Amino acid sequence: MRGLDLGYFLRRIGMFFLVVFVAASFNFFIPRLAPGNPIGAITSRMANASAGIENGQAMFEAYRKRFGLDEPIYVQYVRYMWNTVRLDFGQSLSAYPADVWEIIRPAVGWSLGLIGVSVLFTFALGVTIGALLAWKGTPGIVKTLLPITMIGGVLPYYLLAMLLLYVFAFTARLLPISGAYDSGIRNELSWPYIGTVARHAVLPALSIILTSVGGWALTMRGLMVNTIGEDYMLLADAKGLQKWRILWWYSVRNAIPPQVTHLAIALGYVVSGAILVEIVYSYPGLGYQLYLSIVNSDYTVIQGITLILAVSVGLCVLIIDLIYPRLDPRVTYVAESSG
Amino acid sequence: MHTATLPGTTPFSALTTLRGALRRVVDFFRENRLFTGGVVLLLALYLFGLIGLQLISPKGADMGAVPLNLSPSAAHPLGTDGLGRDMLAVMVIGIPNTFKIGFLAGAVGVIIGTLIGLFAGYYRGYADTIFSSFADVMLVIPTLAILITVSAYVRVVTVEIMALIVGLLAWPLPARVIRSQTLSLRDRLFVQVAKLSGENDFEIITLQILPNLTAYLAASFVGAVSGGILASVGLEVLGLGPQNVPTIGRTLFYAFKYTALFRGMWWWWAPPVVTLAIIFTGLFQMSISLDKYANPRLKGSTRG
Questions:
Q1: Mutating which of A15, A32, A158 best tests the B interface, going by the most B Cβ atoms within 10 A?
Q2: Which is higher by pLDDT, A88 or A116?
Q3: pTM score, two decimals?
Q4: What ipTM did this prediction achieve?
Q5: Phi and psi at residue B232, in whole multiples of 5°?
Q6: How far apart are CA A257 and CA A226, in angstroms?
Q7: Best A272, A279, A288, A298 residue to mutate vs chain B (most B CBs within 10 Å)
Q8: Close Cβ partners of B235 (under 8 Å, ≥ 6 residues apart)
Q9: Residue B276 is nearest to which of A156, A291, A305, comparing CB atoms?
Q10: DSSP for residue B104
């Protein structure tokens, strides 16, 4: 591959593993550094739950052993890391003995769908709006109307989510208030099912799209302005190419690559926002599951979700970094000095 | 305020007289209407809380202090919520608290970020590699996820602890901005001259480099405050914020929990929503007008 040397490749992979390592370490140490030893509280709570049973004390010891709390901290750390690598996050505390991963897995799909669709829409919309704002050929009326799309950018995700919920779902009753699909419908791939899933996804997705599209449009406009004075634009004009072709294949094409890097940086914020949006709409993704686990003090599930979130964002950033040199042939990463 | 881009050998001299400094500040506000508008919005809101605190009795914000679920009236201008609290009192006490969290968190984040950025950018080498990689890693990990985990365990009790936790995770972005600027400043002529005239590293960093970073520091601070309020309100909405005092986010949490939205109690959820809209509008105005001075390349990522 052009412009993608082995050193760059390895550095990015290393970066990804560093992200996973740091996130996992946070997960391991935060509970152990917190005052009041929550892990002890968990085991004693579990022991209490079985207090009516004979040999409660023996059971408590058994739990301590089960969670490996009777061993030195570095042994616990190494074992924790090893389990994490195998996606073994232990067992849920509120739905014991269900595996944490079994609880998280269905939520991953919903979040992935919601965030993926929203990000793609935001990206496409932001690029288009920014391009039209910077382009000379845009009709004046469009240019004056477009900045309206940026109003949402001032509000945090969850606020816009609440407002949309109030206006469209509660007052106007146009769209469903919560959940990801109607309760009476069979969970299978059929048109009614796809329809209800889409209807439920509109408002959450819209909350994410409307709050972030303004920022994208602003940066895109700035990047477009840079291309306007370029020689290849003049040449394209002189060749008599159609206006829209110049706009999309000459101006936008050259302005887009930095937007992709921006996407890598913004992804973490989008995910943070999506967590809260899911909670507002009781959308059964990772964010809502996280909220439920907080309410239930289900610490193992909280840890599992936090880690999954960090790993998936890290993975997306890795993918973006790896395809970036292909998007922008002008950039080569050979002998890049620092990250 | 263009000092950040001027490679002059004595960039600090214009500020020697107090009057000169004052005039520059006034000029700055006059030139940047958007910035001034943002500051006015925030000040107005803060004064609302400050003056309100003298006029109302803070007892009204205690649970059960007033009758439940009253719509706005002369006795309770903003109504009462489902927990028997006077909404006006809740807002008057909550607004300064939210400001306090944001500003403390922003300050903590910017101070740590600046120290790391200056150190890494000035000395480079291994320390820089380690700090920069760590900052990059922290930028990738969704901060809210870590904050939720921390808050779920610590069960934050006070406004100050909340601000500290949020601030401790807000340093990577300022650190990166300050580092990259330090990297470019350290090789400028005036730094070389200062070095040749015998200033030590500490003097060069504090007297030569730091004054030239003013615009970046201001922009980073506004960004960090904005991010701090965003994150802390997010946590409070989840019920993970300070438990002992009213905050804007916690008001929203209760409004949610007791379904104010579906009971038509707009006076319960609208005041916090409007307040937050004003706060973020003000901060957004300030940050985009500072972006012009500080980081034309980082536009749009102010939500951090």
A1: A158
A2: A116
A3: 0.80
A4: 0.73
A5: -70, -40
A6: 13
A7: A272
A8: B144, B147, B148, B151, B156, B162, B166, B241, B249
A9: A156
A10: H
